[in-house]
Design a protein that fits this description.
With 153 residues, this protein is an all-alpha fold. Helix content is 65%, strand content 0%. Bound molecules: zinc ion. The site of zinc ion (ZN) has 6 residues, from helix 7.
């Protein structure tokens, strides 16, 4: 396949922050209507967006220098980073969060974070160029946290 065509596909198949903000607004609004809990609504909104902050850890790990926002986005949009831990983008973490929510009698903050992370990872799974294992932490660990050809967000 021609490289430019691939690029075009990549651009289309990528969840951007804007899309995550929109999706998180919709989810937290629905959650508010269902649970009548502003704690769940707020925490699911914030976690649904801020989960992408884990890319900042990866950026520090790889470049070991001060974060410059413009460079940060350039690095991700142009795939100039090889390290891919994205620690929060992990199905395993969702299992742990769900267990914690249950053990803490459905603490609204934990429930909200669990839902926010879950909807975000599902959308990334669908719209990013990932394989079916990408969001398993164990799988990434086994692959040395190498970005390889996966497109990330
Ligand atoms: Zn993401």
């Amino acid at each position: 396949m021609h490289h430019h065509l691939l690029d075009a596909c990549n651009i289309r198949r990528k969840m951007k922050i804007k899309s995550h903000v929109l999706a998180s607004i919709i989810f937290s609004t629905l959650l508010f209507m269902v649970f009548k809990s502003w704690k769940i609504a707020v925490s699911s909104f914030l976690s649904g967006v801020l989960i992408d902050g884990d890319h900042i850890f990866d950026y520090f790990w790889e470049f070991r220098k001060r974060l410059i926002i413009k460079e940060f986005f350039d690095v991700y949009h142009n795939e100039k980073i090889r390290f891919f831990m994205v620690i929060f983008h992990s199905w395993e973490l969702l299992v742990l969060l769900s267990i914690s929510a249950f053990l803490m009698s459905w603490n609204p903050w934990i429930v909200g974070v669990t839902i926010g992370f879950t909807q975000h990872i599902i959308l990334d799974q669908i719209f990013n160029n990932t394989n079916s294992h990408t969001y398993f932490f164990i799988w990434r660990l086994k692959n040395g946290f190498r970005m390889q050809k996966r497109f990330i967000n």
